[in-house]
Amino acid sequence: MTTRRDRRWLRVAIPFAVLVTLITGTLLVHAAEQPDPADADFLSPASSAGIGSSKLADRLRRRGVAVVRETSTAGALAATSDGDATLLVTTPGLADLDRLSRFDGLPAGTRVVLVGPEQAALARTDWPIRQDGEHLWTTAVIDAGCADPVATAAGPAAVGRLRYATAPCYAGALLTTTWGGLTITAVGAADPFRNDRIDEHGNGALAAGLLARTSRVVWLDVHHRDVQPSPSPSPSSRSTETPFAGPSTGQTPRETGAPGDPGDAAPADRAQGPDQPNPLAEAFPPALWATLALLGLALLALAAAAARRLGTPVAEPLPSRVPADETMLGHARLYQRAHAREESLDILRAAARRRITAHLGLPAGATVEDIAESAGYQVDDVREVLAGFRPDNDAELVSAANAVQHLVREITGFEGDQP
């Protein structure tokens, strides 16, 4: 009895456990999922949503830094033409980084801050920045670990999602490099710039410190593909073009995690970086892949709970003949396990009525009154045996079955064990 109760309890508990697991997994995936850069609120200085950046923009204004919002790469280039500006690129995968990295693009002395640039976006530039490894599922909080004054003042910050080669700050999650008169900073995560994360750890101090080094911040707020197709160079211009060897002043590029840290880099490093990711995989949002994974897990759980392979049942011949008494006993056990007392008694009564009507020469659809009249019994007595009593337990079922068997014997004179 205890084993049967345990099995019944498991039948109820397993589906609930699977449901709780799916809900928990969904919540974890939702917490780990990064916001979509195509969302108009993502790191927008005009948005007060959780993924917006209105708090950071207000902090910069209180520090005397002008915030200029631009919604196109061309507008951002025009806004930085006066110099003494920091260009914040919140969506490097959507902005025209190729245009920004040209010599005639940004004026010398401009600072560029890239938020979470991946290798696919960096490969469109000549900047000596390469992604190191794959991105993490969640953003990690990391100590500064370098001599950069902004990072040191900010302390631990949530930037550890993407890492970049030769970056000493935040275990590779913050890289500052100079190239062609520009100072370029790559930040490994968007958390320090978000409204719902800026007050955690040293996020706010790091984001404001990176942007407040000039009197103006040109905020490139792009949420659609802004890459402009460039004309193909002619064969003559292609043959006379000289490789990028740095600015005409003879300045050599260097990568720095803090001012003064040495480190040479060449444009050839970009060609040696990892292969670009599959564009088909990037065409779908991460939520789609998470949903497909959860659906796959749900199907596996359903198959395990059903304890059978997916598909329709397959009919197979029995390996041997099964004796009738074993079949009867097996059916009886199934009815007993299902507590189908009324159904079992109905089967016995139907068999008894068929035998009695055949013995009395009555039609198959004869009523209880017809049977009682032909057999010479009281109608109420026959009805009680063949159609009235409903058992509530196994003892009453046995008593009712005996009554049916006794009635058949009295009417037909049959002395067998079954009606």
UniProtKB/TrEMBL annotation:
Pfam families: DUF4350. Residues 225-282 are annotated as: Disordered. InterPro entries: DUF4350. It comes from the Bacteria. Residues 257-275 have a biased composition (Low complexity). Residues 46-211 form the DUF4350 domain. This is DUF4350 domain-containing protein. It comes from Actinoplanes siamensis.
